[in-house]
Amino acid sequence: MVWEQFRAGFNTLTAAVNGYLWHPAILYLLLACGLVLTIRSRFIQFKALTQGFSLVFGRYGHDDGPGAISHFQALSAALSATVGLGNIGGVALAIGIGGPGAVFWMWVVGGLGMVLKSVEVTQSMIYRDTSDPDNPHGGPMYLMQRGFAEKFPRFAWLGRVLALLFVASLLVAAFTGGNAFQAWNTAVVTEQYLGLPGPFVGLVLGVLVAVVILGGVTRIGRVTGKIVPFMCGLYLAAALYVVLINLEHLPAVFAQIFSAAFGSLSAQGAFLGGTAGWAFSTGMQRAFFSNEAGQGSSAMAHAAVKTKHPAREGLVAGLEPFIDTLVVCTLTALVILLSGSWNRPPDIALGRLPDFQTAADGAWQLPATPVFSEIHPEAEAGRAVFMPISFPNSNRADQNLAGTVARDASGGLVITWDSVTAPTKPVTRTAGCYLRFDGASLTAYSFDRVQPGLGRWLVTLATWFFALSTMISWSYYGEQGVVFAFGERWARPYRFLYCAATVVSTSGLLQTAQEINQLTMLGTGAMLWVNIPIVMLFSGDAITKLREASTALRKTGESGSETVLAERSVVGD
């Protein structure tokens, strides 16, 4: 009881903090920043799509300079953090909360995120620390500390303070979105399909992550350079298969995405219904979490690249939101929408329409409800379910009431329900309930509705690979923050603590999709708050260098010879 009260209080606190971090005014401000940088950079997104890919595949030759990994390895390491369970589980959460309209706002963030990534990575490359050429360090904390010292010497102290604030938000994000979200989703999917307990899944993940990260950034680059292309290719092929066999329904799905983005969508099946505001906020939140644009995280992976041309890596970084959001997230969304899993009819028919009764402390309670003999094959004892309920004569929004499949004294199946506190008597919307699929498990279920077995094996495998690659990269990001704030001697203890956190995340402390969503948004929101103002403040130099680099690369391509770019990289302190 004490733990449940603590958890309820903690969830209330995180929801309140997220209410400020993700206030609609902040979302509009983020959009405005992306638009301003897009115009000032002369739509650098299009240059990233052409010249960025050319750099990755070595069309302009191989860069020399300080660093440890190639453009391709740096992009793979950064993508391994972004192309993760945010693409599988996060998209499902966005549609489940905000409906199809959330997909449109994910596209908007993907497009504007390309310029945010290019600018912030270029900035961090300019101010990275290459005093150890084989192991350079970089990221927003170096930009904040060095940038203020160089451009605003009187406020050098402020740069240090902001850098430490960024490190604090980075560590929160590393342990929540970079670790807990990945491990929790993996445990949910693995337990659903393979029956393996969550703590065991967490232990295996922790050991696998430890094997890689203890080898340093070079091993991280090698491993992610193999995992990401393979898993992305396999996952995208399966998603394209689902789209192709449902091609005739595609126009209707796109029409629904656009209409729901700007208008209300009534309740449909397992979807509670929502407004354009819900679609806007959830779509933007999940897209920023997924592609990490504006967070400054991937700048730390790109800082290890071998180059003496900072803006070149900025062009490469612009590819991340395109691949992550406009390709992978879009295909995941189309699978969910085309499968009809989000607005499906009830999975379990109930013996009667249940009616709420009063309970203690102003709560309302549904009695245990018998189940019809014809039930979903997965509706076994202990299975989590939910039922949409409404609150007549109240401004309170509809919500899902949680329940659990159980057996009564005669051995028959019944649903036992959680209580709900409300000023007016709730009403049930239908004489049926739904199996609860949280995050990545909803995506897996969507694949299975189209092709039985596809979700069970493909999404389970993809979940493991994506979670592993994301956790590896985020462990490195967090380590860079620890090294900056406390020194190299704390790197190894941090690595062990990070790996141990995977077991905690899968031990049952986090139980619902809402809890894990609130926790991940906490870290993402804090990083954006600290980093975006600095990105805008120091954007001038980065945009100038991006435009110069793009022009030089175009001339290089035309002449077929290497052009030396007039760019600098800060070396040492």
Beta-strand content bin: 5-15%
Structural class, please? Answer: alpha+beta
User: If you compute it from the alpha carbons, what radius of gyration comes out, rounded to the nearest whole angstrom?
Assistant: 24 Å
CATH superfamily of the largest domain: Amino acid/polyamine transporter I
Unreliable spans are: 560-573
If you consult CATH, what is the topology of the largest domain?
Amino acid/polyamine transporter I
Supply the CATH architecture of the largest domain: Up-down Bundle
Q: Could you state the order of secondary-structure elements as H and E?
A: HHHHHHHHHHHHHHHEEEEEEEEEEHHHHH
- The helix fraction, in percent, is 55-70%
The tally of strands reads: 10
- Distance between the terminal alpha carbons, to the nearest Å? 53 Å
Mean pLDDT: 82
For this entry, give a set of tags.
573 residues; 7-stranded antiparallel beta sheet; Elongation Factor Tu (Ef-tu), domain 3; 3-stranded antiparallel beta sheet; disordered C terminus; Amino acid/polyamine transporter I; alpha+beta; 7% strand; globular; 2 domains
Can you describe this structure?
The chain is of the alpha+beta class and 573 residues long. The protein folds into 2 domains: 66-129 and 136-341 and 443-557, Amino acid/polyamine transporter I (Up-down Bundle), CATH 1.20.1740.10; 348-436, Elongation Factor Tu (Ef-tu), domain 3, CATH 2.40.30. It has helices at 2-21, 24-40, 44-56, 71-82, 85-98, 101-126, 140-151, 156-194, 198-213, 216-245, 250-261, 276-291, 298-302, 310-317, 319-339, 440-450, 454-486, 491-505, 513-537, 539-559, and strands spanning 348-349, 357-358, 363-365, 369-370, 384-390, 399-407, 413-417, 420-421, 427-428, 432-435. Strands 1, 4, 5, 6, 7, 9 and 10 form a 7-stranded antiparallel sheet that branches. It has a 3-stranded antiparallel sheet with strand order 2-3-8, with no helix packed on it. Residues 560-573 have low confidence and may be disordered.
